[in-house]
């Protein structure tokens, strides 16, 4: 009898979850979602068979400018018409600002600045935000130009008949190269060769972290958390990044105070090290 009751209530609970979270209702169109996965399998996002841009285009052709899309338990209303988008941004007081992106990022990097709130966010923001002001970017313009020239030189060495099908990836490599030099004075070597062939340990770790993020951003939270905890390759990649960052901090600490004071105006790692407290309680 007890087993029968457990099965009965389990079935009722599944029906409730299905009706509450995975049922298409109302005037807004969309594809009926799968249980637990929503539209992730149907769209090809979960297995990575389609980029998100192609998914949006195909769904727009099927359902119009406004439609529903499920990512696991979370239902999104996707808006394509630029006039509607502008209206939403001009009337943010009428529309809730979702926190799903922060929730997903916190699974991967819980200590990142965008996942912090209160005094901790203000402290981190006071250190990092000034480095992204216009005058700080201009002071690093030579690094940006050098990286861009390296990428253009690679393209020029190719045959004029060669069709570049990985421009997005190469531009991402350029961004990594520039960020590594500006933030950490470290050459990630992402432009010297294809990222897939790069033997730089830190670059490979960063690449895997980015690949993991593409997966967890669409997967249900419980699957994302389990995947990261049970994935030894992710754990090794994270340990590698932490080891390199700790080495960078230690190397920066060997620099003179005058050198750090001057470089913190344009270097993130120098700014972070200069802000370290000697009092652990104050640091916390």
Automatic annotation (TrEMBL):
InterPro entries to which the protein is assigned, alphabetical: Cyt_P450, Cyt_P450_sf, Insect_CytP450_Detox
A Pfam family it matches: p450
Cofactor annotation: heme
GO MF: heme binding; iron ion binding; monooxygenase activity; oxidoreductase activity, acting on paired donors, with incorporation or reduction of molecular oxygen
Coiled-coil regions listed in the entry: 192-254
Xref: Gene3D superfamilies: Cytochrome P450 (1.10.630.10)
Keywords: Coiled coil, Heme, Iron, Metal-binding, Monooxygenase, Oxidoreductase
Similarity-based family: Belongs to the cytochrome P450 family.
Protein name from the UniProt record: Cytochrome P450
Organism: Adineta steineri
